[in-house]
Amino acid sequence: MSGVILYWSILSAQFILVLTMALVLYRVFRGPRAQDRVLGLDTLYVTAMLILLTFGIETGRDVYFEAALIIGLLGFVSTAALAKFIMRGEVIE
Fold it and tell me: CB neighbours of 57 closer than 8 A, spacing ≥ 6?
């Protein structure tokens, strides 16, 4: 019984996350300001990380958790660099 509940929970979470990615991509491409696009990219990498985590829970393989960790680290650095670029106009001082 609990296996069936876990399967349907993961499946519904993946569906909701894919729907979220579609809506965020709309915001990234149609965002009126650069700040909206940066927030959209930030949400996009977090959602991609969560999708990989749900794949990892579903399959039980460690490679998905490691990929999610790499996406999280690179996403944080890229968001910080984009925010600095928007505020100052340059990334490297």
Answer: 10
